[in-house]
Amino acid sequence: MKYIIKLIKEDDYEEALELIWKSFLQFDAQYCDDEGIKSFERDVIKNPMFIKMVLEETNYIWGAYYQNRLCGVMVVRRTNHIMLLYVNSTMLRNGIGSALVDELKYSQHIITVNASPFAVEFYKKLGFEVIDTKKNRHGIISIPMILKTQ
């Protein structure tokens, strides 16, 4: 399967947020309490500062496109922390998530992520290691992980 990985342009932010929200509800909401679901929606999906940080290049949104359709999204804080990584459910297990992470591997020696319980095995397959115990921040469960590329 051939897809293109590139930084998402402002015109595609709405589509990216829609993919993020749908994927969060499908895969990660089961690990959150009501507070966690509400805080994710408030802090990511409906937060104008989230997009402002992308426009100011504090955060970057990478997209994976297949046949000109957005099928995967990775949000990166600064240059090496994966904030969010979601792939359209119909496109899972086609290497899209791995390809998005590979974009960081080319330029970063250390990559971190606070993985959802759903994604821990995915990150382990890419070489990430768990570095701390499970965290609960505003009702959202995550597991801190790191990848040293060199």
From TrEMBL:
This is N-acetyltransferase domain-containing protein. It comes from the Bacteria. InterPro entries: Acyl_CoA_acyltransferase (IPR016181), GNAT_dom (IPR000182), N-acetyltrans/Recomb-assoc (IPR052564). Pfam families: Acetyltransf_10. PANTHER family: ACETYLTRANSFERASE, ACETYLTRANSFERASE (GNAT) FAMILY PROTEIN. It comes from Anaerocolumna chitinilytica. Gene3D superfamilies: 3.40.630.30. Residues 3-150 form the N-acetyltransferase domain. One of its GO terms (molecular function) is acyltransferase activity, transferring groups other than amino-acyl groups. Transmembrane segments: none annotated. The lineage of its organism: Bacteria, Bacillati, Bacillota, Clostridia, Lachnospirales.
